[in-house]
Fold:
Amino acid sequence: MVRHQNLQKLKDGRVFDLIIIGGGATGCGVALDAASRGLKVALIEKNDFSEGTSSRSTKLVHGGVRYLEMAVKKLDRVQYNLVKDGLRERGILLKNAQHLSNRLPLITPLYKWLDVPYVFSGLKLYDLLSGKQNIGHSCLLSRKEALRRFPTLKAEGLKAGVLYYDGQFHDSRMALSLALTAEQHGATIANHVAVSGLCKEGGKIVGAELTDSLTGESWQLKAKGVVNATGPFVDQIRLMDNPETAKILTASTGIHIVLDKRFAPPDTGLMIPETEDGRVLFVLPWENHALVGTTDEPSEITEHPKPLEAEIDYLLRHVTHYFNLQVKKSDIKAVWSGLRPLVSDPRATDTAKLARDHVIEDSASGLLTIAGGKWTSYRKMALDTVDHALKRFNLSAPKPTCQTEQLPILGSANYADKGDLELSKKYGFDADVASYLNRTYGDQADQVAKLANGGLGIRLVKNHPVLEAEVLYAVRYEFAERVIDVLARRMPLALVDSEAAKVAAPRVLEIMAEELGWDRQRCEEEILLAEMRLTEAL
Structure:
């Protein structure tokens, strides 16, 4: 319903200051920065918000320990500044999205005495670079203390451990919340709308042709500037502008598997800085489960990359190497793969050594492209992009400087750590449900609770805290248009337990169909799409 209203705004002939293509971390961040400065913004996403890479990250907000090591070893100032900026942005994100993020202690186990001073000094430098945004001090752990904090860690050969801190967050809801906050500041946002062409006059871009992905309807939207913020897909839009342009992006794939919570303590993660082939491995508590990732392999750019069996085997082999527990494929509750956009020389082959920095490019016809980066630096990327757009498109903003450093996103302004206790007391929720609602919706949780109190307070599936009321809330207030939008992005169910998501799908369909008036054909399409995504690739 809210999407329908926004589509009408995109069709009524108004001219926007900026059309922003891409509803992931980058696009949503740019939309919020621009809208909060008072610009007239249209945010367009061809699928669902964060449906691509932005919902399939390792869920960490970090400066990049690996990049710091490379900066020191090679005296690389680019990598050094990347880490320093990332640590600053980590602190800002944790402050502005309190309900969706948290500080997370991580242990690096050390099995060689020579590694102890090297790793410890590196992580102390990591602390130092965070400056005033430091979220915790690294410390050396004895073998006994490391095993106490992470009991399933393999004890054989363990010499010591180093404890350090990084941030953790809920990526898909973060992107959605950025988009919704941009809308609060005047942006017109629309998912499931594709840019099918660029409109030009005299060789200069003056807008875009849009196509509703759900109905096939097309129309033109005029704007003073167009920003290409499509993550791994920026070259597709660049080629739409100029078929002769050289590609500027490569990608690596990161695979993640989800295991039962017994594989990780509820409040501590594990970081292996270097496996035998030089990759980083994480084992993290997330949504009452254990999240394991990630590999780093060159990859083709596709919308829904399918996890390869070899990558799954790789993770299982390495998890077993560092755990006293045997981990089998039957223990996997969910698996997904995401792309990492890397601005690079297309001839480069070692994606692990590429800086995750971002670049801004102008085409001759006026397409502004923001490429590269990572989730942690989304706000800095947005700041740089909007600053550039103001000059490039000669835009006059009521607030010419960035407003987002101290701008809480939707749900965070009046968030309370103990809000779950109030929800339990007021609505009678079980403790796990109240905790989940509080950290998922923040100060908006009461709105979901009221819908639950109206007859939709039942869990969608056993042993998970997600409620039927969330489906209705997602449709009415969060632009959910498909069953998989709800299962995979409005709630984390598909990402932690794909079988449970399959069980919940029919009820999600029933609620959405009644609210949106779907006919039988649409219902059949929705359930088939959900089953395909839950079985093949989210």
Notes: The chain has three domains: 2-54+172-248+354-392, 55-171+250-353, 419-535. The longest helix spans residues 77-96. The mean pLDDT is 93.
